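hey so i finally got around to running the thing on that chain from the lab meeting. sorry it took forever, my laptop kept dying and i had to restart like 3 times. anyway pasting the input first so we r on the same page abt which one it is
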Amino acid sequence: MIWETLIGGVVGFTTVVVGRIAQKVHVAKQPWEHLIGIGLGAFAGKKLYDLDKWVNSEYEKTIVLYERRSEKQDKLGTLCWDFSLLFYYMRISFVYFVIDRVLLFTLINTPPS
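ok and heres what got predicted. didnt touch it at all, straight out
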């Protein structure tokens, strides 16, 4: 945890120094800005570290939740799969039944040649 704060402080200090160099102003003109940069950088580094920990914990919770849900769906999924196959075969058999009736109707109602 100290490393994130330290790195954040270095980044804040570097931001102030690079900003001063880009403005072509004396780097140590207002040294209190360096302290503010270090403090804000350290604060941002710590908050980013905390955010990273929180995101990782939420990710782990989500993975566990999806694993539990997939286990439940595996039990339910086989039943749903069986019903889907049943409806599929029922639909196919209904289509064949309709085709058969249509052909039979046309054969019965066609005049002999």
